[in-house]
Amino acid sequence: MEILGYALAVLVGVSLGLIGSGGSILTVPILVYIMAVNPVLATAYSLFIVGSTALVGGIQSALLKKVDFKTVAIFGVPAIAAVYATRMWLMPLIPAEIFTIGNFVLTKNIGLMLLFAVVMILASVSMIRPGKQKEQDENAPRVYNYPMILLEGVVVGLLTGLVGAGGGFLIIPALVILARMPMKLAVGTSLFIIAAKSLIGFIGDLQGNEVIDWKLLGIFTAFSVGGIFIGILLSKKIPGQKLKKGFGWFVLVMGIYIIIKELFLK
Predict the structure, then answer these.
(1) Beta partners for 101?
(2) Is 105 left (phi over 0), alpha (psi -120 to 50) or beta?
(3) 95 in the Ramachandran plot: left (φ > 0), alpha (ψ -120 to 50) or beta?
(4) Structural contact between residues 75 and 145, judged by C-beta atoms closer than 8 angstroms
(5) CB of 223 within 8 A of CB of 88?
(6) What secondary structure does DSSP assign to the chain, as a single string?
(7) Residue spans per domain, the chain
(8) What is the pLDDT of residue 80?
(9) Fewest beta carbons within 10 Å, which of 75, 122, 240, 242?
(10) CB under 8 Å to 5, separation ≥6 — which residues?
(11) Bridge partner residues of 97 (DSSP)
């Protein structure tokens, strides 16, 4: 199972390189269901794995001039502040058992996985639905909806902190819709935002009481980083709109699976 987990780590990188998202959607289930990592700890590991992999991919995208650094700053600053505060102060406040109904006990672990799944399903809708506006040309001037981009940054940061998701599946639609960014430019920009807030969120965990398995973390991250180069190569051959819609369906299926797994297959 450990070998399978490391093999699947390559898919984490491929997903990030291909569509600038999906790393955490794969990482958390792999760590929890295959590597037998506690869900709360898995969210912390996911921040490091996805953040490190996204940083490598972001640098590669920057070299290809596929990153809008102004948007990285506008979106990233509130997101970074929110994820750090969530990991440092909000997560420790959540009780181990949230509530009980009959024989069902909603634990912190189950609650986080269900929240993760609901966010995935909601995000998938915005990816699957055909956009009302045509994708912008890469050389066209950016149009920024500053209040909405700032608000989206805070929301994504909060969810990132809670479920250990890099938030690319929320960042990508925000960049495409709010900043009218072409899909492939949004992918590169998303990678830098994911890297910054994920790694800073992980620093918040280091200041807590979590015991980190650095060997597992290092090997998993190395395979994931290898995968991102494969994803970047594939992205050059696949149209942006097909990436967006295809990823939306993938997110939807994974979200439904996690809900069924947590509620009915325990």
Answers:
(1) 104
(2) beta
(3) beta
(4) no
(5) no
(6) -HHHHHHHHHHHHHHHHHHS--HHHHHHHIIIIIS---HHHHHHHHHHHHHHHHHHHHHHHHHTT---HHHHHHHHHHHHHHHHHIIIIIGGGS-SEEEEETTEEEEHHHHHHHHHHHHHHHHHHHHHSPPSSPPPPTTSPP---HHHHHHHHHHHHHHHHHH----HHHHHHHHHHHS---HHHHHHHHHHHHHHHHHHHHHHHHTTT----HHHHHHHHHHHHHHHHHHHHHHTTS-HHHHHHHHHHHHHHHHHHHHHHHHH--
(7) 2-264
(8) 83
(9) 242
(10) 30, 31, 34, 35, 220
(11) 107
d(CA 181, CA 43): 29
Under the banding of pLDDT at 50, 70 and 90, the label for residue 140 is low
CA–CA dist 10, 64 (Å, integer)? 22
Q: Which amino acid makes up residue 50?
A: V
Whether the CB-CB separation of 16 and 228 falls below 8 Å is answered with yes
> What is the b/e burial string over 84-95, where b = at least 16 CB atoms within 10 angstroms of the residue's CB?
bbbbbeebeeee
The closest alpha carbon to 127, from 28, 25, 250, belongs to: 250
> pLDDT for 56-79, tens place per residue?
888 988 888 888 888 888 888 888
pTM for the predicted model, two decimal places: 0.73
What count of residues does the chain have? 266
pLDDT digits (tens, 9 = 90+) for 162-175: 876 666 767 877 77
Site of tokens 């650094």: 69
